[in-house]
Amino acid sequence: MAFTILATVHCGSGNENPTGGTGAAGGTGGTGGTGSTGGNGGTGGTGATGGNGGTGGTGGGECMTTDKAIRFGKLVNPEDGSVIDNAIVVTHEDRISYVGTDEKQIPCGASVIDWTAYTGLPGLVDAHVHFSYQTDQEPGTLPWSRVTWLVNNDPYKYMDLARGAALATLKTGVTTTIDKGGRDFLLMNLRDEIKAGKTPGPRVFTAMGGISNYKYPNSVPAQELKAWVQLLVLRGADIVKVWADKCTDQTLECSPTFTYDELKLLVDTAHEEGLPIAIHAYHQDTAKLAIMAGPDSIEHPEGLDTVDCGNMIDRGTIYVPTIDHNRYYKDNLAFFGYAPDLEQKFEAYIQDNLASATQAHLVGVKMAMGSDAVFTGFGENTKELAWFVQAGMTPLEALRAATIHGAESIGAQNEIGKVAVGYYADIIAVEGDPLADINVVINGVRKVMMGGRVAEF
């Protein structure tokens, strides 16, 4: 996918222009005449004065800049649903420097990108992915195994699979991801490669692994809990991820692995270290404990009631339901090694999860789009939005969940989630009206800019 350059903007005189030409030298004055001999000779005439040199001309060459100006047919603000017709967005390096309709704000020499056939939106945020959950399916390689964190035989192939997942995600219009658990060596490399422009993909915030409790059956020492958080800080985590329950692949039953006091200490320690924290809690009982602890986001829970929802609102916790990932598991039972009779259980879980999302939306809980993408689930990242509409959201509310709320869940709401001055230049172009039909966002992404760079697919 390439962008079209309409023009390079030219301008008149100014500091950016080439220096004007040198004026012509003035002429030399003539020599005065000699007086006649005899008598008093007449005085010789005075020679003519030489002319002044001409003034150098003003330059009128092209300006030099890497700024870009993108023209949209419409630009939608998911915060309030406002629309700018014939919008212009100017980018400087990786940030947005202007949003409006004033042609005069296009910098001299800027590259002008014609996306007038499309509607512009902020780049989307997938608030729950696992880029390192990969497995090599080539003949002769080991099968998928949760025990080995889904690592395949060849580490280089493992990294290539993660790069492919990042590219597939970017194609869906997702320009920011929050990786909530996985192999830190891979995630660190992937995050840095994308940031440097070496690998096409979305911006990556990562938990660099995460925290789970399989060691202490009764209680976890307080110092151990603090040390687990501090270790993630030293690894370079952007967010702390906690698995607060464990589930079996045989029955899909889950049970809590932390007490409320333990979860509260993890939350408080993460916040003291300046990091947001997300808690994985499938089980209803686990979710109640996790919500009371006050994390920045809670992942997956079903069975939420109005009390749970009120507690999320009071504590500012964002709900990431990840409804669609169970659809993905249900449709791929054999690949994941699930028994055929679990299909009905997955379907029941989907319906329970959808009911919780509906309840949360009705009472005003902030929700964020999270795909929980693994394996080939990448590239289907935005299908969660269809479930949000089923849960009662308007397309605008679903857009807000996929942009502003996702950014808030990582504490990046002043840089990500809007097309606004000072924000990252993460912008997508969709074909159709996203305020009328959410499928325009799910299936209609046509152009993607991430950090001021236009993706070419």
From TrEMBL:
What InterPro entries does the database record attribute to this sequence? Amidohydro-rel, Metal-dep_hydrolase_composite, Metal_Hydrolase, Metallo-dep_Hydrolase, OTAase-like
Q: Where is this region: Disordered?
A: 13-60
Q: What is a GO molecular function of this protein?
A: hydrolase activity, acting on carbon-nitrogen (but not peptide) bonds
Q: Give the highest taxon in the source lineage.
A: Bacteria
User: Residues in domain Amidohydrolase-related?
Assistant: 121-454
Q: A Pfam family matched by this chain, by name?
A: Amidohydro_1
CDD domains, alphabetized:
Met_dep_hydrolase_A (cd01299)
> From start to end residue, where is composition biased (Gly residues)?
20-60
Stated name of the protein: Amidohydrolase family protein
What species is this protein from?
Polyangium jinanense
